[in-house]
Design a protein that fits this description.
Blueprint lengths: L3 E10 L4 E11 L4 E5 L6 H8 L7 E6 L2 E2 L4 H10 E4 L11 H6 L2 H4 L4 H14 L15 H13 L5 E5 L7 H13 L6 E5 L3 H7 L2 E6 L2 E6 L1 H6 L2
Parallel strand pairs: 3-8, 3-9, 6-7, 7-8
Antiparallel strand pairs: 1-2, 1-4, 4-5, 9-10
Helix pairs in contact: 5-6, 6-7
One adenosine-5'-diphosphate binds next to strand 2 and helix 1.
């Protein structure tokens, strides 16, 4: 069974009636790496935010690892424990150190002894090669380093699924590569990864599939090879 499934999903924003997702039918296999691209405003961000219930949808069904998203609060909790998310803005707490940003997250630290939480957090910081900055504050780091911290924070959940929403869009060009390298380094762990991005480096290097959206619809799906060879 697919780990994520969209069945006839429709969403509009009640505030302005904007029909942002139109009849979305998609499924993602466990471990699949998918890039979602398309013009600004085409619904990419909304699509992935529906997966972990950051957005509601009006029609259809989204099933994440056997749980229907949106049915009840318990289901939402279960899904959020399995889904890590990285945003364009790193969303780190500026008044906490890098390490504190990781270990003060209640979702994974709950009831864990402090030493164990620190050990786990340091292991994730090492995985994104930022452990030496554990005691610094986010604003002492470059944008690329801050995004790596945000990735490490998501990894603390040991998520089955990672969602990336324009993870390199706020970065200077020289920092994009270090974040891409970290993301590419995560692809051998069997985690399902969906990435909304204009940056095609990730797609070319590791994606199994590229999805192109326009005006709330999926208008093309292909392997990267086919996608980049068919202008
Ligand atoms: P992006 O394309 O990077 O997602 P947007 O500028 O479309 O950025 O949206 C930025 C934020 O503003 C998002 O959280 C989005 O949900 C919200 N937003 C976008 N359009 C509207 C709108 N018409 N009314 C209210 N909020 C909006
Ligand atoms: P993309 O990620 O492809 O840029 P989004 O999913 O962010 O697209 O948004 C698609 C469109 O939906 C936006 O251009 C905006 O018009 C509308 N939208 C997004 N967020 C909101 C919101 N919170 N309220 C109302 N409209 C929104």
């Amino acid at each position: 069974a697919p780990i994520i499934q969209f069945e006839n999903v429709n969403k509009w924003y009640p505030s302005n009636g904007y029909h942002v997702l139109r009849d979305i039918n998609l499924s993602f296999a466990k471990g699949e790496k998918v890039v979602i691209c398309g013009p600004s405003g085409s619904g990419k961000s909304t699509l992935i935010r529906c997966i972990n219930a950051l957005e509601e949808y009006q029609e259809g069904k989204i099933i994440v690892d056997g749980t229907v998203v949106g049915d009840d609060v318990k289901g939402v909790d279960r899904v959020r424990r399995e889904v890590g998310m990285v945003f364009q803005q790193f969303n780190l707490f500026p008044h906490l150190t890098v390490l504190e940003n990781l270990i003060l997250s209640p979702t994974w630290v709950a009831k864990m002894p402090r030493n164990e939480a620190i050990e786990k957090a340091m292991a994730q910081l090492e995985r994104v090669r930022i452990a030496e900055h554990a005691d610094k504050y986010p604003l002492q780091l470059s944008g690329g380093q801050q995004q790596r911290v945000a990735i490490a924070r998501s990894l603390c959940l040991t998520p089955k699924i990672m969602l990336f929403d324009e993870p390199t869009s706020a970065l200077d060009p020289e920092m994009i590569k270090e974040v891409l390298d970290v993301m590419i380094g995560l692809t051998d762990q069997g985690m399902t990864m969906l990435c909304v991005t204009h940056e095609m480096g990730f797609a070319k290097a590791v994606a199994d599939r590229v999805i192109f959206m326009d005006q709330g619809q999926v208008v093309e799906q292909n392997t990267p090879e086919e996608f980049f060879n068919n202008p």
